[in-house]
Amino acid sequence: MAEYNRVSECVGVITLRNPPVNALSAAVRQGIVDAVQRALSDPNVKSVVICGQNGIFCGGADIKEFGSNMTGHPLIPMIHAIESANKPVVAAIEGSALGGGLELALGCHYRIAHSKARLGLPEVSLGLLPAAGGSQRLPRLIGVPAALNLITTGRHVTAAEALQLGIVDQVTDHNTVDAAVKFALSVAGRSLDPRRISTHPCPQQPDLDALFEEVMQKVRQSARGAIAPIACVQAVRAAATLPYAQGMERERELMATLFTSGQARALQYCFFAERAVGRWRMPSGARWDTSKSRPVHKAAVIGLGTMGRGITVALAQTGLSVIAVETQEKQLMEAKQAISGMLERGAKRRGVAPALDGVIYSQNIQAVADVDLVIEAVFEDIALKTKVFQQLSAVCKPGTLLCTNTSALDVDQLASETPNPELVVGMHFFAPAHVMKLLEVVYGPRSSPQAVATAMQLGKKMGKASVAVGNCRGFVGNRMLKPYIEEAFFLLEEGATPELVDQALEEFGFPMGVFRMSDLSGLDVGWRVRKGDGLVEPGTASGRFARIRQGRRYSPLGDLLCEEGRFGQKTGRGWYQYDKPGSRVARSDPWLHSFLGAYRAQHGLVARRIDHQEVLERCLYALINEGFHILDDGIAAGPEDIDVIYVSGYGWPRHRGGPMFYANMVGLAKVLERLEHYQQLHPEVPHLQPSSLLRRLVASGSPPIHKWGEAIKKLHSQL
Ligand SMILES: CCCCCCCCCCCCC/C=C/C(=O)SCCNC(=O)CCNC(=O)[C@H](O)C(C)(C)COP(=O)(O)OP(=O)(O)OC[C@H]1O[C@@H](n2cnc3c(N)ncnc32)[C@H](O)[C@@H]1OP(=O)(O)O
Would you call 376 a catalytic residue per the annotation? Predict the structure, then answer.
C-alpha cells in the first residue's frame, strides 16, 4: 500500500498506492511508517520523496474507516515521525492533496506541486476538523487569517494560490516526482530545523481577539447549526494562542466531540450519497454501468425565459456549442443580452474567457436540425409543449435526444406525442439553472437507457448533482414539497404565524422557512397549479366544509392571498411585507395577522399555541412520509437519491443528511408513532397517513438506512 524505491542512488521514494485516491487507510499508514523507517535507516539515502500513484497525491484519511473501529498505526505519530526525520522529506503533489493528505504534506519539510494540483483541508464538509495537526500547522505556515479561511470553508486552492499563500515551495508544469527528486537532492544535508512547521510560532497578528470574534460571528451565521465550522475556529485559535503540544491536545479534544457526532455521520453520508446517485438504475433493470451515453457536441435550448437562459449558460459553460431559440424577436434580443451578461460574470469569477461565441441565437426552430440534444424550456402548458415536441421530431436529425424542463407536466404524455418516445427524458433544472446544483433526470417507461445515460452524463459535465428519477406528478422534489407546504398552511389555520413556522424551520437549518421561500418563488405559481387541479373556488364560504376539497382537507389561505394580489416579493406583499416590489427583506405584516384572525373567525377555528416541535414534526414528517411512498413506488431507486435531491436543491441542511437520513437518525418507529398521532387528530389529511413502506420497515426491525434497499426488495418480493 506504500511502495519504497531508491532512485538517483540516494533518494528514497515512497509511493502511496491505494486507488482511486490513495486514501490513508490503515494499510497505507503502515506502509508509510515502514517505508520511512527504511529510508531513514539506509545510510545511502540522503533525502526522501513522498508521492502518490496514478497522478494523485492523496485524498486524505479513508472516510470509510470512520464508521468502524479505527485500528492500525495512527496518523498523528506517523506525521510527527516524518517531520522529525533527520533527512529532508519532500512531498510531490500531483492531482489532489486533501485533508489528511495535505496534513501529511505539511509534516514534510518541503512541498512541490504540479500546476494542476488542488490542495485543501475539506474536513469541515465532513463534519470534522483537520485533526492530524492540520489545524495547528497551517496557521503557523500561512498565518491565522488565511488558515481560518481555508479550514472553515474547506475550499480547495489551486497550486498557484498555494504557492502564493506559502503552502508549497515550488510549482512545476513537468513531472512532479522528477522535480521533487531533483529538489530533494539539492537540499540534502541542509538544516531541517527551520522546515519543521510545528516548531514555528504563528505569524504575529494584530488584534487577535477582535479577528477571532469577527470570524466566529460570521461562521456561526453561515453554519446554520453546523458545529464543525465553529470547532475549526476554536482549533485555529488554539494554534494562535497556545504552544504546539497544547494546541494539539485542544485539536484532539475538539475532534473527539465531532468525530462521533450525528452531524459528522450525516455529512459523511452525504459525501457517499452524492457519489452513489451516479450509479443509477431503472426499474427495467437498466443501469449506469451497462448503458452507454451518446456523445453530445451540440445542444439546443427552446424558449429563453428565466429557465431557458440559465440552461443555455450552464450548457455553454461546459464548452458545448448551443443553439438558443426564441420565436419572438424582442424576447430573443433581451435573452441574448441577459445570457451574455451571465456568461461574462461567470467567466470573470472563474478567471476564464466567456463562452460568448459558443451560443448561436435563432428565431427559427429549423436551426436545431443538426444538434445532438434539445432541452425544451417553454411555458408550462401541455398543448404548447406538445406542439414544440412535434416540431422538434420533424426538424431534428434522427437520434436527437429530446428533453423537457417541465416541473409539473407528464413526461410520458409528451413522449407519446413523438414518434420516438425512447429518445425523450425530463431534465428538470432548478432556478437559476446555471447556479443551482440539482438536476432531476426524469425517465418514463419508454425512455431508453441510452437517453438516461446521456442526460446523466451531461448533468455531470455541467457540475450538477444529477439524480435519475421515475415519472410522477412533481417527480421527487416537488412531490415531497406538497405535503410540507400543506401542513404549513394547516398550522396557520390552527394558530401559527408565518414567522413562527419559518423560525422553527430556519432553526432546524433551512436557509429559509416555507413562507419566506414561497414569497421568493412567487405565490402565484402554486395558485396556477391549484387552479389547474380544480381546487380553487371563488367566494367566501365558511366553516369546515369550505375547507374540504376533493374529499380531503384543503386550506384556501394561499388562494385568498393571491386574490388580494399578494404574490410575494415581486409584488412587495405576500406572507410578509417588503419595502418595495422585488425587495428581499421580509418584514412581519400586521395586515396578514389580522387577515389570519378574520379567516379563523369566519371558519370557526380557535387559535391554539403551536410550538416548534409540532411545526417540525408535521411539516417534516409529512414530507418524509411522501419520501417513503416514493421509494415504495420505485420513483426513486434509494434513500440517497431523495436525500441528494433535498440537500442540493431544496435547502435541506446538509449536516442533517437529507430527509430520509434524518428519519433514520430520529428513528423510524418514532416517525411512525408521530405520524399516527397526527393522523388521529387530522383524519381528513391523507398525507399524514403513514406509508405502508414505513410501517413495514418498522415491523421488520427498522433496518439502518444503508440496508433499506435490501429490505425494500425483500418486502416487495413478499407482496
Ligand atoms: C472516540 C473519538 C475519538 C476521536 C479521535 C479520532 C481521531 C482520528 C484522527 C484522524 C484524523 C484524521 C484527519 C483527517 C481527516 C481527513 O482526511 S477526512 C478526508 C478529507 N478528504 C476529503 O474530503 C476528500 C474527499 N475526496 C474528494 O474530494 C474527491 O474524491 C477527490 C479526491 C477530489 C477526487 O475526486 P474525483 O476524481 O471526482 O473522484 P470521486 O468520485 O470523488 O471519488 C472516487 C472514489 O473515491 C472515494 N473516495 C474519495 N475520497 C475518499 C476518502 N478520503 N476516503 C475514502 N474514499 C474516498 C469516493 O467515495 C469514490 O468512490 P465511490 O463512492 O465508490 O464512487
Answer: no
pLDDT in tens, 153-201: 999 999 999 999 999 999 999 999 999 999 999 999 999 999 999 999 9
User: 122 in ligand 1 pocket by Cβ < 6 Å?
Assistant: yes
| Strands 11-16, 2-7: pairing kind | antiparallel
- HEC per residue, 153-208: HCCCEEHHHHHHHCCCCEEECCCHHHHHHHHHHHHCCCCCHHHCHHHCCCCCCCCH
Q: Which of the following CATH numbers is that of domain 496-503+512-602: 1.10.1040.10, 3.90.1150.10, 1.10.10.10, 1.10.760.10?
A: 1.10.1040.10
Share of the chain above pLDDT 90, in %: 93
User: Which pLDDT tens digit goes with each residue over 509-547?
Assistant: 999 999 999 999 999 989 988 998 899 987 667 767 778
Tell whether ligand 1 has an atom less than 6 A from the beta carbon of residue 134. Answer: no
* CATH T-level topology, domain 612-717: N-(1-d-carboxylethyl)-l-norvaline Dehydrogenase; domain 2 (1.10.1040)
8 A C-beta contact, residue 313 and residue 346: yes
Query: 2-259 belongs to which CATH class?
Result: alpha beta
Rounded to whole angstroms, the Cα distance separating 274 from 465 reads 7
Residue 238 to residue 217: CA distance in whole angstroms:
17
Whether 133 is in the pocket of ligand 1, judged by its Cβ within 6 Å, is: no
Q: Ligand 1 pocket test: which of 63, 71, 157 has the largest number of ligand atoms within 8 Å of its C-beta?
A: 63
Task: Output the CA 279–ligand 1 centroid distance in Å.
Answer: 18
Verify whether ligand 1 is closer than 6 Å to residue 226 (CB atom).
no
Catalytic residue among 83, 94, 103, 617: 103
Tell me the three cell numbers of residue 450.
Answer: 441510452
| Domain 298-474 in this protein, CATH class | alpha beta
Nearest-CA residue for ligand 1 atom 2 is 256
The candidate with the shortest Cα–Cα distance to 609, out of 715, 494, 441, is 494
- Name the residue of 1, 18, 21 to mutate for ligand 1: max ligand atoms within 8 A of Cβ: 21
Cβ count near 68 (within 10 Å):
7
Q: Whole-model pTM?
A: 0.96
pLDDT digits (tens, 9 = 90+) for 439-469: 999 999 999 999 999 999 999 999 999 999 9
Max CA pair span of the chain: 94
Please work out whether the CB of residue 61 comes within 6 Å of at least one atom of ligand 1.
yes
For ligand 1, say whether the CB of 412 is within 6 Å of any of its atoms: no
